[in-house]
Amino acid sequence: MSQSTLQTAIKEELLSRIKRGYYEEGKKFPTEYVLCEEFDVSRTTVRGALNQLTLEGYLIRQQGRGTFVAGKKVRQTLSHTPNNYAAQLAVQGKRGEVSLIQLSVVSATDVLTEVFPVEEQAPIQKIERIRHADGEPTQYEISFIPWSIAPGITKEQAEHSLFDTLSKVFDIQVAKTTESLEIVLADESISSHLKCPINAPCFYIETVTEDQEGQIIEYSRSYFRGDKTNFVIERSYR
């Protein structure tokens, strides 16, 4: 595993711990030495992961005191739209396209068992895709769907709307999505997928999708090029 891949994996694990409250807000964060020992990696790799978390606002470094867990970010709710990606682009006169990077089955990790009502090691379908607008990559998305929910999603289905596939093929109706939006900086992996410079600002959205019974059926992490994407929030006060 390359250093950049290790750095990304460690950063995501530490971020998951912060979001789950494993590291408490305002408390001192483990030192580079402690993390190097835990993950059995070089100080350079750990430092890169900590730098990323600091730049994204999850950690605060205080001169002479160390690194601390930052306060939680303010949440905003995005307005609802019934249109999928291609339909939204079509209205803007652009051509939308989805390309599949990888379709695999992975074992449920601690993070995924906290999202889905499944046991650890349960099979989860992992779908990595890139969305394009007029041929340019604008979004890198990693989706997770339990095998028990929709077994055997195909490459053809993954290159189209997953919500349409859930509805038409598996008779599962999407009833609600909960989305968290923030700004992150592109690491080497995101830079490669989105064809943008390393450390370029990107929108990051985590989405949890529920069916009509309130069962969580899909979880995704999406990165959007900041120079190619904006979001509209529409509120009605009537």
UniProtKB/TrEMBL annotation:
<keyword id="KW-0805">Transcription regulation</keyword>
<keyword id="KW-0238">DNA-binding</keyword>
<dbReference type="Pfam" id="PF07702">
    <property type="entry name" value="UTRA"/>
</dbReference>
<feature type="domain" description="HTH gntR-type">
    <location>
        <begin position="4"/>
        <end position="72"/>
    </location>
</feature>
<protein>
    <submittedName>
        <fullName>GntR family transcriptional regulator</fullName>
    </submittedName>
</protein>
<dbReference type="InterPro" id="IPR036390">
    <property type="entry name" value="WH_DNA-bd_sf"/>
</dbReference>
<dbReference type="Pfam" id="PF00392">
    <property type="entry name" value="GntR"/>
</dbReference>
<dbReference type="InterPro" id="IPR028978">
    <property type="entry name" value="Chorismate_lyase_/UTRA_dom_sf"/>
</dbReference>
<keyword id="KW-0804">Transcription</keyword>
<dbReference type="InterPro" id="IPR050679">
    <property type="entry name" value="Bact_HTH_transcr_reg"/>
</dbReference>
<dbReference type="InterPro" id="IPR000524">
    <property type="entry name" value="Tscrpt_reg_HTH_GntR"/>
</dbReference>
<dbReference type="InterPro" id="IPR011663">
    <property type="entry name" value="UTRA"/>
</dbReference>
<dbReference type="InterPro" id="IPR036388">
    <property type="entry name" value="WH-like_DNA-bd_sf"/>
</dbReference>
